[in-house]
Amino acid sequence: MPSDFERLVSALRRASRVSALTGAGVSAESGIATFRGAGGLWEGHRIEEVATPEAFAEDPERVWRFYEMRRRNAREARPNAGHEALAALEERFPGFLLATQNVDGLHRRAGSRNLVELHGSIVRRYCVRCRRIEEDLEPLEVLPPVCEACGNLMRPDIVWFGEPLPVEAWADAQEAARASEVYLVVGTSAEVYPAAGLALIAADAGAEVFEINPAATALSPMFSGAIREPSGEALPRILSALPG
Ligand code: BV8
Ligand code: ZN
Fold it and tell me: Phi first, then psi: what are they for 227, rounded to 5°?
């Protein structure tokens, strides 16, 4: 009876269309705490309480303190072997699309280019009024930052709870999931929708879906198999088991 690892490797050897969905677990080995693994608390409050338009309207400075803490974590973090293996998979499988829920920018820093950031990125912020965009990970001296052009509030370019996902990113991610022969679901608790639904879209379209996560999730029973290891170890092992 082949192990899930062997079944995944042989599926990848046969496949030409492979894509992936990632969550906070991919960045855990870069030292960035996950949301629900760390008891889901950030500075003592739940992500669903600070990551909403209402929270920002009520207290933009408190929300910006939360994101500035996340920006500092991201600035000090480095992509890990899992991020790098995912960037290498993009080279190996033309058409590979990485849909990430992460906002830490580490996939891009690891070299992933066929990437959609479903929930935005803490590297970018935009003016609530004139939509002027600024992009950096530098420390922000003044919180909340204001627009240099019109003086209004800048907000993180993040999809908060209750906000729609970027239309283009969501469409591309769905298309890639639907077209996949093998779909990797890496480091996500699969609790947040519609992102988690990509795994179901892939499975319904006939893909072999494998979960790479030390823990089982609500969607595990829907998948072909699971590699119960940290992604920073599992992904390089999978990559090195592929020919060439
Ligand atoms: C929308 C930005 C509608 C913020 C985020 C009730 C039921 C179902 C759905 C809903 C509901 N009530 C509300 C909803 C909808 C809501 C939702 O899904 N809520 C959840 C909480 C139930 N969704 C939304 O609001 C979405 N928008 O629906 O809009 C709409 C449509 C049209 C027009 C108008 C409106 C928007 C969702 C996006 C929210 N923003 N992020 C920020 O990051 O600051 S979501 C947030 O959670 C992060 O992006 C994060 O990525 C995401 C998911 O978490 P995970 O990445 O999975 O991380 P988690 O900690 O949960 O899990 C980590 C996993 O890694 C674990 O499984 C662990 O075992 C594993 N792991 C640990 N170490 C490792 C590892 N794996 C591998 N290797 C390791 N080393
Ligand atoms: Zn402005």
Answer: -110, 105
Question: Do residues 128 and 218 both lie within one domain?
Answer: no
Gap from CA of 122 to ligand 2 centroid (Å): 18
- Tell which residue, 22, 130, 2, has the closest CA to residue 80: 22
Q: Is 119 one of the catalytic residues?
A: yes
Q: Is 4 in the pocket of ligand 1 (CB under 6 A)?
A: no
Q: What is the CATH classification number for the domain harbouring 187? A: 3.40.50.1220
- Judge contact between 118 and 124, C-beta under 8 A: no
Q: Taking the model in full, what pTM does it have?
A: 0.96
Q: For the segment 85-130, what is each residue's pLDDT rounded down to a tens digit?
A: 999 999 999 999 999 999 999 999 999 999 999 999 999 999 999 9
Q: Which domain holds residue 202?
A: 1-32+79-119+164-244
